[in-house]
Amino acid sequence: xxxxxxxxxxxxxxxxxLKAALASLRSMHTTGESFLVSRVYETxxxxxxxxxxxxxxxxxxxxxxxxxxxxxDRLQAIEAAMGRPSKRPRNAPRxxxxxxxxxxxxxxxNREIIIPxxxxxxxxxxxxxxxxxxxxxxxxxxxxxxxxxxxxxDDPSDVLAVxxxx
Length: 166
Description:
28% helix, two-stranded antiparallel sheet, alpha+beta
């Protein structure tokens, strides 16, 4: 299954956080298509408390052999290993945040997981990195590609590419 995952960090050494998460994600990639990595973007915090540090965001696309629930469990294990508590206020600062954006053409909506990510199409900080690696992707339930969604987005938040490699 081809899976898209968003990475975000705004606590501690953001570059090291992204690199550590990326290494863990690479170890989960199965043979098949390429492991794709976007550029890194510095983004304004969305729906966070005043004074929250800006985020560094990226996206990857990889092959994963397993159920979406297994992928979610593995992502949450990476977050926990990197210091993100399982019980936390919504949108609290975090060393790493890993969200499943899509899993092929799969559509899921239950208490545990919603795929595709329900707010993906509304967030420049997700669409910008995803457009780097999958601009022509059309998500289930949508008619526009990621690039088209990004171009049409009415979101004034700043999303600036950071000149680093992860």
